Amino acid sequence: MFASAPFLKVLFxxxxxxxxxxxVAARAAESxxxxxxxxxxxxxxxxxxxxxxxxxxxxxxxxxxxxxxxxKDAGDAGSPPQLSLTQPAHVTTGAFDWPAPDWLVTxxxxxxxxxxxxxxxxxxxxxxxxSAGGVNLNGLARWxxxxxxxxxPQQARFRLRLSEGAASPSAEAGLFASAHDxxxxxxxxxxxxxxxxxxxxxxxxxxxxxLRTAHFFPNRPDAIVNAAPQRLDFQPAGFSLALxxxxxxxxxxxxxxxxxxxAAGKGEALAIAPKLAAAGPAVSASTSAxxxxxxxxxxxxxxSDAVRVPRARHQGAERGAAGR
Length: 324
Prior knowledge:
By secondary structure, this protein is mainly beta. It is 10% helix and 42% strand. The chain has two domains: 34-182, Thiol:disulfide interchange protein DsbD, N-terminal domain (Immunoglobulin-like); 185-293, Immunoglobulin-like, CATH 2.60.40. The chain contains three helices and 24 strands. The chain is elongated and about 60 Å long.
C-alpha cells in the first residue's frame, strides 16, 4: 500500500524541520596521535576555529594503567614534558597549566607525578591574526613516561590545522573544563613557614574533625627533601606540616601547592606562598596526629623496590617516533 502524496509532503516537511533544528555536533580539533604501549599523546584545541591572535591548546596524555609522567617539579628524578611549536613562524606559547600531582616514593627518591588522562593546557600567541586560510600548527614534544620498573623517554611531532572564523567549543572543550577544575586554586587560608621548615596553615574548617591528610608540593625540586614524610600536627586554628628543608632558606619564598583531603575523602589543591615566620620548635611525635604520607586523593604514597632509570641515562636512552 502506497502512502498518499499529501502524507509524503507532510513527512518530508517534518524531516526537514528535524534537520534544521537538530543540534550541530562539536567538531573534533585534535592533532595526529602518538600511540605506544605506555600512552597515547596528542595536541587538542579548546575551540574548533581560530579568531584573532590568541587561543588555547593542550597537550593531552592518555596514560596506560601503571604509567605516569612528571609534574612541573619532577622531584628527585625525571623531568616534565616539553613542547615547542615550530610553525607558524614566530608563534609563542605560555606555560602549561598543571593539575596537582601525586607523591611517589621509590628507593628513597621522592617524585611528583601525574597519571591517568591528563590535559596540560597552554595559550598560543600568533604574531598576527589568523588569515582566511586558517592556521597550520606544527610542534615537537618530548616527555618521560615511567612505570614502577622502567622509564621510557619519548618524543613526537604533532600537526594540527584550525580554520579561521568565529570560535565555538570543540569536541575536546570538556577536557579543558576538567583541567580548569583540577588546577590548584588560590588558597583562602593564611599560611606561614619557619626557617626550619614548619609550615602552618590556619583558617576555618581545618581542625582535626575536618581534615584527613595534607601534603605540600614545592615549585622547585631542591627546596625540600622530597622523599621525607611531612608530619601533620593539628593546631587550635589549623594545622602544621613538618617539612625538611634541603636548599631552601629564608628570605627566598617557598611557593607551591598544598593538597588537603577532608574527612569525607574529598581532595582540594591550593596554591600557597607562605609568609616567613619566626622559627619555632620542631613538631614532636607525641603531638602529631598523622604522618603525611598520603597524596591528596587519600591514596598511600607508593613504596616499592622498583629499579628506576637514573636521570643521567635518560638522554642516551631516548626512544622517539613520529606521531601516528
